Amino acid sequence: MNREEKKVIINSLAEKLNEYPHYYITDTSELNAEQTAALRKVCFEKDVKLIVVKNTLFIKALEQVEKVQEELKPALKGETAIMFAHVAKNPAVLIKEFRKTNPKPVLKGACVEDCVYMGDEAVETLVNIKSREELIGDIIALLQSPAKNVISALQGSAGHKVAGLVKALEERAQ
C-alpha cells in the first residue's frame, strides 16, 4: 500500500470519527465468511458501521481529528474491526446478541460519550447505558410527577375545598 492509498484510508476513517460520536474497537478474527456476513448484516440493521482497519492507520486518523485516547492504544493490537455508531449502546447490544451463537466479536475497547471502556467485561456495562433521549425522558417523567400530584389533588375532593377557600377569600377582599 503506497502513501496515497494510506492517506485516503486515514481521511476516510477521520470522516467516520467526525460523523459518529461513539466507536468500539473489536476483534473479529476467527469468524468465517458466513459469520462475518451475518455480523455485517446485523450491523447494517442496527445502524452500526463495521470497518476492518490497520491499527496504525486508525491511530493516525484519531490523531488527525484530535480524538486520541491514550488509554485505548493498548487495545489497538492484533486484528481490529471498528464499530461506529450514533447510539452509544447499539454496538454493545449487537455484540451481546451476536455472541449467543458465535464466539466473537470480542470488545477490546470503546469510546462512548468521551469515556473509555476497556476489555470485554465492559460489554455488560455498555449495554445498560441509557441514550440521551432515554435520559431526557426520565428527567421529564420526574418533573411531571409532582405536577400531576398537584393537579389530581385539585381535581379531587381537596380541589373543592381549595376552590371554596379561594372563593371565600375573594368575597372577603371585596
Summarize the structure.
The protein is α+β, with helices and mostly antiparallel strands and 174 residues long. It has 2 domains: 3-129, Ribosomal protein L10, N-terminal RNA-binding domain (Alpha-Beta Plaits, 2-Layer Sandwich); 133-173, no CATH class.
Q: What do you see in this structure?
A:
The chain is of the alpha+beta class and 174 residues long. It folds into two domains: 3-129, Alpha-Beta Plaits (2-Layer Sandwich), CATH 3.30.70.1730; 133-173, no CATH class. It is built from seven helices and five strands. It has helices at 3-19, 33-45, 55-64, 90-98, 122-127, 132-155, 157-173; strands at 22-27, 48-53, 80-85, 106-112, 115-118. Strands 2-3-1-4-5 form a five-stranded antiparallel sheet. It is elongated. The model has no long low-confidence stretch (mean pLDDT 82).
Write the layout of secondary structure elements.
Layout: H1 3-19, E1 22-27, H2 33-45, E2 48-53, H3 55-64, E3 80-85, H4 90-98, E4 106-112, E5 115-118, H5 122-127, H6 132-155, H7 157-173
Antiparallel strand pairs: 1-3, 1-4, 2-3, 4-5
| Strand percent estimate | 15-25%
Number of helical stretches of at least 4 residues: 7
| Name given to the CATH architecture of the largest domain | 2-Layer Sandwich
**What is the CATH level 1 assignment of the largest domain?**
Alpha Beta
Radius of gyration: 26 Å
CATH fold descriptor of the largest domain: Alpha-Beta Plaits
Order of helices and strands: HEHEHEHEEHHH
- Which strands sit side by side, in order, in the main sheet? 2-3-1-4-5
Distance between the termini: 91 Å
Taking all residues together, what is the mean pLDDT?
Answer: 82
User: What form results from the Cα inertia axes?
Assistant: elongated
Report the uncertain regions: none
Major sheet description: 5 strands, antiparallel
Structural domain tally? 2
Give helix % range: 55-70%
Q: Helix/strand-derived class?
A: alpha+beta
Find the count of extended strands (DSSP E, 2+ residues): 5
Going by CATH, the homologous superfamily of the largest domain would be Ribosomal protein L10, N-terminal RNA-binding domain
